[in-house]
Amino acid sequence: MKISSVVVKAPSSTANLGPGFDVFGLAIDAFYDEIKICRKNDSGVKMINVNKVLINKRNTATITIRCMKKEFGINDGVSIYLKKGVPIGFGMGSSAASAAAAAIGFNKLFKLNLDSNSLIKFAGLGEKASSGTIHYDNVAASILGGFVIVKNNPLNVFTVTPPQNLRLCLAIPEIKIADQKTKLARNVMPSKIKLKDSIYNLSNATQMVYGFMNNNIKTIGESMNDRIIEESRKKLIPGFLKVKTSAIKAGAFGASISGAGPTIIAVADKSSELKKICYAMKKSFNEENVKCNTIICKPSKGALK
Amino acid sequence: MKISSVVVKAPSSTANLGPGFDVFGLAIDAFYDEIKICRKNDSGVKMINVNKVLINKRNTATITIRCMKKEFGINDGVSIYLKKGVPIGFGMGSSAASAAAAAIGFNKLFKLNLDSNSLIKFAGLGEKASSGTIHYDNVAASILGGFVIVKNNPLNVFTVTPPQNLRLCLAIPEIKIADQKTKLARNVMPSKIKLKDSIYNLSNATQMVYGFMNNNIKTIGESMNDRIIEESRKKLIPGFLKVKTSAIKAGAFGASISGAGPTIIAVADKSSELKKICYAMKKSFNEENVKCNTIICKPSKGALK
Lengths: 305, 305
Known about the structure:
Chain A has 305 residues and is an alpha+beta fold. In chain A, 37% of the residues lie in helices and 27% in strands.
């Protein structure tokens, strides 16, 4: 029997976590995109922007579904009702969440029985339209949930269930977001880096995996050290270093830019003074004349779960 | 009561394991250095080369002990009886094993009660004399055993017990070893690398940690991919790519240069055709007119255990 419609909720996510550029992703329960996909009579793909959030015409959900339609020769059209929950352009995997929900929803609606790697690949094609390059960190986290380690060519994703007491403090600055911000944030990065900086990041990233797998939040936070990305991207975020330092001073185990930014994410424990950490980050942004919202959140299950 | 002498055995080790340059080490039971340290009446440090293996005058064990004597203001002299078991200059942590055994032995003899990080630091000072730069991957593995992840500044080492069925096939080519080979192997490396190669190595290294912590030998082997070190060092090992490829073709899950080389190490399972892998590696070296010994070994406990 044909299914006439499906509803999928996909979580926000944070990528990189400091040293793990293009490799690490973590699904977080701060925000969710919800997508309802319904069959319709013609063969088109129609996007209905339920809550009238400003979204690009070539939305990642639409692109993902067009790719899947083409790949599997599906002529049936669909209407996509997108309830956008993840703020766009703040480095919390907004485009990934839409793409993830779309891939999973379309797979269900047409009973394609795709494995998770295939879903991640199609969602990645949607993501590509947003960032200019394929990267699977956010979509993998949004689809699978928890902490993910991504390897490309061939795509392979390993997932780790994060410590139950892990908490994240997000400082979301009200900075005017440039068009194609992710592309811009990628363009500021060098194509060559120092070998010793690469070793520094690798040792921190490998210890972060150790921390996640040993349920050691302190180790996770203390591994959020990066000498490659922050250096290039901090200029796009007024007060970055100040905000990061203040979070750690207030009790966070570590802090870094969430994905392409400008959100800053701090790692803490359930028993940490989470409000104090948020306040410290907000205050530091305010001192740079930047308004800022803060959120305390925790890891999320994925849209597939 | 004064202890008059101690005996310590430290295992050989393999560093890098492909992507983890200067970060990963694995103690292996292929060879051991054994050191006996005895108090003597004057304040000097005397090295007795028990099995007359050719060693440098400024041996890592001697240097390590001189550093410890100085640091702790110990005037008592010692005789070091070194039974050298780890072949020198083949990339199996020979200088590290001597340094590791010396640091642990001296610590016991003079009841210094040093923690493992301090022992690793002193052994690292001995290592420095051999390679020109401080790196703790081999000494940490030789001291602590198993798989180690090393972070510098401040030094912090995380250890993982490797899968019980992990087996390593070593192909040890009879290549004339240059003086200060490790220094040379470091000098051929670039000071700058491509960002995308760094991401490639980092994703493989993080998945290797996942493999070790999940007891997944296949994942460990399949993560032995490196785009930074092999590229520079393979020219120092005739037939490297051929040997690596033949190991994998014969059933190994992955292979790479052991430390600074020229030994090549392949990762396999207890149930793999280990002799076949060894034979394939040996044959490939022979085809390049290089004689080669092979050894099947497994992870080792550390000298501290």
